[in-house]
Amino acid sequence: MKVAICFPRYGDTKGEFTTSLARMLVHSLSAEIPGRPGERLQIEIFSIASTDLVENRTILLRRAMEWQARYLLWLDVDHSFPRDALLRLMAHRLEVVGCNYLRRHEPFRPVAARTREDGQWEHVWTTEDAARRGLVEEVSHVGLGLCLIDMLALLKVREHVEKGVGWANWGPFDRKLLPGTNMRMGEDASFFAELRAAGVPVHVDHRLSWQVGHIGDRVLTHKLAQAEAEADIAARTRT
Known about the structure:
The structure is a single chain. The termini are far apart. It is built from 8 helices and 12 strands. By secondary structure, the chain is an alpha/beta fold. The chain has a 7-stranded mixed β-sheet, sandwiched between helices. It has a 3-stranded antiparallel β-sheet with strand order 4-11-12. A two-stranded antiparallel sheet has the order 6-7. The chain has one domain: Spore Coat Polysaccharide Biosynthesis Protein SpsA, Chain A (Alpha-Beta Complex), CATH 3.90.550.40.
């Protein structure tokens, strides 16, 4: 089974990312595919370095399609993750499943979000309890820092797109306006909006998310965010 690992980059990769990727490759190539005894993965890595993230992701997606990958694992080069991350995501057998992680700027907030019934966005938090229970839930979007896509889902997307702009003109990562605002969504949120419009659900794995770090000046984890949130609540209680 073919898995394309794709990551855009600008400058050098982070050391913790490189170590995580190496460990994941060694583990994944030597392990059996979940639910497919005796079968092994065939992995190819695609990466592009430039400042145009939208174009980078578009080219990487096309290369994965040309290679006829069954799965595409998106990674960002400033993340750390467990060596079995790929196999754990594959084991869910979902069309799209990714990890929740923190944005690198303060206040630290998760990238996963959902749309409420009133049309407003809200953050989806990865808590220690959700991780312990192994919760996998549907969301509106996650980030592409660690996200697995079953490429068969693109058949649905193509059918949907052909009714509109046409497959040849499809810009999957073109930054769309956030509904009701003059602000543009990120390329990842725009991509997930395209998937959802085609009927492809997006899920987040909270257990794996709890083990993912976003590398800035320090490694940001959900445990850190939860501790800071609890400290804020305690401070407000005292005042």
